[in-house]
Design brief:
By secondary structure, this protein is mainly α. It has one domain. The termini are far apart.
């Protein structure tokens, strides 16, 4: 399992919080949050480390996730 610096972990958490503000309230479930966190973690594991890129990695998946649950 990759090890991330405390600074990157803070950036990933902030990115996840930002992405969750883009999810409609009625779909902002713990499951959706966990799935978006996985996309952000994957992006970080692939070398993305800046906030904007991590937000984009999660936000790009919102529509796909919501199409599965609706």
């Amino acid at each position: 399992m990759p090890s991330h610096s405390p600074e990157l972990i803070q950036i990933m958490r902030a990115a996840l919080d930002e992405v969750m503000t883009k999810v409609p309230v009625e779909h902002a479930t713990p499951g959706i949050k966990a799935a978006l966190a996985e996309y952000i973690l994957k992006a970080a594991a692939e070398g993305e480390t800046d906030y904007e890129s991590l937000v984009a990695a999660g936000a790009d998946q919102i529509r796909t996730l919501l199409s599965v649950v609706t």
